[in-house]
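Q: How do we represent a protein-ligand complex in a form that can be generated token by token?
A: Start from the inputs.
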Amino acid sequence: MGLALPAQPGYVVEENLAELAELSRSTGLEVVGHGLQNRRSPDSRTLVGRGKAEEIARASAELGAEVVIFDDDLTPNQVKNLEAIIDCAVIDRSALILDLFVRQARTREARTQVELAQLEYQLPRLTRRWTHLSRQAGGIGVRGGEGETQLEADRRMLRTRIKQLKKELGRIERTRELHRRGRRDHVVIALAGYTNAGKSTLFNRLTRAGVRAEDRLFATLDSRLRKGSLGGPKTAIFADTVGFIRKLPHHLVASFRSTLEEITQANLVLHVVDRSHPRWREQMEIGEEVLADLDVDMTRVLPVFNKSDLWSDDGEAGNGAPAVSAQTGAGVEELKTMLLERIAANGTNGNGGGA
Ligand SMILES: Nc1nc2c(ncn2[C@@H]2O[C@H](COP(=O)(O)OP(=O)(O)OP(=O)(O)O)[C@@H](O)[C@H]2O)c(=O)[nH]1
Ligand SMILES: [Mg+2]
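Then emit the structure tokens for the protein with magnesium ion bound:
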């Protein structure tokens, strides 16, 4: 369900819903229907209007839907009110992304970060019917009928766990920092960009590593490092990182900060853009926003237009960004040469220097 406010044209809301559907499918859900409402402003009790909520209730009963996902953030109270009307689990985009993250987290660091983000999200929403898809296999739509005392106990437990996780994350980050100091003599090149842009595929191309690349959102959650040769004197370390997305909840970005730090600390950032995507411009802008959020100096960022096998240059791509196909390898050698030149140029001002 999307909400179209006057400031947002209908087609943008439609596109956002399409992405929400993609996210849903990536978590293994089947999308049985969608809808949007035009409103002057959100309803503080139910986000959409009361009548619309009742309409959703009828439609989801007819379709046998088990969960209704809103593209906009819902307050804990809105969730409660909506669940009372709709009679199935109600979640928002953030909860869905968190669910996806839980499924994709592989390393201890990623798992710790994801659990922390999830608990912080859940804390004010403990009464919710949607507990967690991953935690309770087959448990979609479980009602949270706990009494107040139980609820208080649960909250206390969550707070304790959050404290533990933060401590653990601090430890992991310190280790990571030590490792980072150990590779001062190398140039670090991070691959960043919108989810599904082809970062892992390009990473594999550049390093011959076997990182999984998948046609799904957030295939990669933890940054991965690997040496690759550019043919120059210095060894290059490439870092594959978590993808960006529109409306990535800010508390999530914060909890992934240490993973994203590979980007902040890198000598060069390859901003990988899926130029064949109908919304590549918006995705590229979001990428630039996140990079700016991370305080990445834009002079260290090199945009790369990927999937050149799927689009043809219509003259728009002529702003100097190299075109590559991570899949076929086209343009990758030229990209390496360009990287070497950039590194050589940076080397003179001490960036990436070994001293
Ligand atoms: N046609 C074509 N497909 C590509 C190219 N590069 C990547 N892909 C495909 O695009 C999909 C996503 O690729 P990934 O490398 O997993 O993308 P990613 O940026 O790492 O995605 P996340 O880890 O989810 O953020 C996969 O199905 C790839 O096979 C390319 O140059 N051409
Ligand atoms: Mg990836």
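The mean pLDDT is 83. The two ends are 55 Å apart (CA to CA).
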